[in-house]
Design goal:
The protein contains 14 helices and 24 strands. The protein is of the alpha/beta class. Strands 14-17-18-13-12-20-21 form a seven-stranded mixed β-sheet, sandwiched between helices. A six-stranded mixed β-sheet has the order 9-8-7-10-11-23, sandwiched between helices. It has a three-stranded antiparallel β-sheet with strand order 5-6-24. Helix 9 links the parallel strand 12 and strand 13. Helix 9 crosses helix 10. The relative contact order is 0.14. The mean pLDDT is about 95.
Length: about 475
């Protein structure tokens, strides 16, 4: 059984959880210990105890630790990618790419540890100078989802450590393997005992225990809108005072195809955005908004491409779309397919449950679904499905398309496919989202630039790149007399 890491020691839990391969539900990858509330408290205390040492470490020390972690991740990307594909269902090339991204993230923030700056300013008063510096915030709780089980932990853990914070990390229950493997690498670094802690466990138990602990200074969370809102509400009434919050809560993203679009690229962007990674990405574009003049041609081409997608074992080279992560998510995908039919949408491709893959393995298989004849008031166009289910909405032109893009309570990312510079420029400014893609899929972001949305998608400072410093540090202003 794989144990939790608390205060530099590997500790078993009172309960355990089997990690099941969604491509082959008879394959148990391993068993992982579940932390209880007492162990969460110990982890928080250990992180607080280590903070004094790690927060005062030199930039070079932090660089060396993070750079070493990143180098090992990259060296083992094939092995770790195979584990990720096996436990999450992402295809092997996508999984290896995700692991490589995690290694790159650690190396990027190793460099950021050396680049944390400040300012020296003249005071408005004579014989006084002003210094503006950044300091770590303290103990950071990290709660991550199952869809990117090593990249999302990396882009939270690496900056937390780079800026001198200590960490208590709670991964999603569905994907403990990648989290444990990352932890094992971090545990062998030169971090002080307790500077990094892993507490695997049920979100309903571990999350509140972490949030209510007096040692918590900041909490960064990626997950559902409902859970993020509960965290924000609970943080407001916390006895120990409100911690700093960073909440990434998903999207109901749109991709616009205008009449002047390159049809081949538009179909490519739609397939990549809506269905790859089994549609289990917060940046997936599930609303395809298509101008009337290109609509029929686009739908025909898209359905033809969908028919060629092979749904199968995540680690099989012939597979394009892997399984859904677990039975609960599979049931949700099927409920939304049924709902779309009830709402009057036309299912033109897919949407079927596949109990076995093309390789004959029993798993959580689902053929990607496409609805046409939809309008934006339908629930399938307003609620995040988090699966390979996309809709098409026919519009007269750009203005109507933009209005539908913005008709959402969420605002993570939006895309457009057009050869018109005027429309592309206007869309970049007027799409009410945190990120915009022009002639590229909505799914796929760089690690050195900010990530995040607007409206209900995000709360708090941006993630990734040099903008991460805004969450993981606090600003201090000092006045020095002559």
């Amino acid at each position: 059984m794989k144990a939790n890491l608390i205060g530099g020691r590997w500790l078993d839990g009172t309960q355990a959880l089997d990690n099941v391969n969604p491509s082959d539900i008879g394959d148990i990858i391993d068993t992982y210990a579940l932390a209880d509330t007492a162990q969460v408290a110990c982890a928080m205390e250990a992180a607080a105890a280590a903070f004094g040492e790690w927060s005062l470490s030199t930039p070079q020390q932090r660089f060396d630790v993070l750079d070493g972690i990143g180098a090992e991740i990259l060296a083992r990307k094939a092995e770790l990618g195979d584990l990720l594909a096996r436990e999450e269902g992402k295809t092997l090339p996508e999984a290896i790419g995700e692991v490589a991204r995690a290694g790159q993230i650690f190396k990027f923030f190793a460099g950021e540890a050396l680049r944390t700056g400040g300012e020296t300013l003249p005071s408005v008063r004579p014989d006084i100078r002003v210094e503006v510096t950044r300091e770590p915030i303290g103990v950071v709780g990290i709660i991550t989802p199952w869809n990117f089980p090593i990249a999302i932990p990396a882009w939270k853990i690496a900056p937390a450590l780079a800026y001198g914070n200590c960490v208590v990390f709670k991964p999603a229950e569905a994907v403990p393997g990648s989290a444990w493997a990352l932890t094992e690498i971090i545990a062998r670094s030169a971090l002080p005992a307790g500077a990094f802690n892993l507490v695997m466990g049920q979100g309903a138990e571990v999350g509140p225990a972490m949030l209510n602990d007096a040692n918590l200074s900041g909490l960064t969370f990626t997950g559902s809108v409902a859970t993020g809102r509960r965290i924000a509400a609970a943080a407001l009434t916390r006895d120990a005072g409100m911690p700093k919050l960073q909440l990434e809560m998903g999207g109901k993203n749109a991709f616009v195809v205008l009449n002047d679009a390159d049809i081949d690229n538009a179909v490519h962007c739609a397939i990549q955005s809506a269905f790859y990674s089994t549609g289990q990405r917060c940046t997936a574009a599930s609303r395809l908004i298509v101008a009337d003049g290109i609509h029929d041609k686009f739908v025909r081409a898209l359905v033809e491409k969908m028919a060629a997608l092979n749904v199968g074992d995540a680690r099989d080279p012939a597979t394009h779309i892997g399984p859904v992560v677990d039975e609960r998510q599979l049931e949700q995908d099927l409920r939304y397919v049924a709902l779309g039919k009830e709402e009057g949408a036309t299912l033109v491709s897919g949407g079927e449950l596949l109990r076995t893959s093309t390789q004959g393995k029993r798993g959580h298989y689902f053929r990607p679904a496409l609805f046409t004849e939809t309008h934006n008031a339908m629930r399938i166009n307003q609620e995040e499905i988090f699966g390979p289910v996309a809709t098409v909405q026919r519009v007269k032109g750009y203005e109507e398309a933009l209005a539908i893009v913005n008709d959402s309570s969420l605002g993570l990312v939006a895309g457009i496919c057009t050869t018109s510079l005027r429309h592309a420029t206007h869309f970049k400014r007027h799409a009410q989202t945190g990120m915009v893609m022009v002639n590229v899929p909505t799914a796929g972001v760089d690690y050195h630039v900010p990530f995040g949305g607007r409206k209900g998608s995000s709360y708090g400072p941006r993630e990734q790149g040099r903008y991460a410093v805004d969450f993981y540090t606090t600003v201090k202003t000092s006045y020095i007399g002559a």
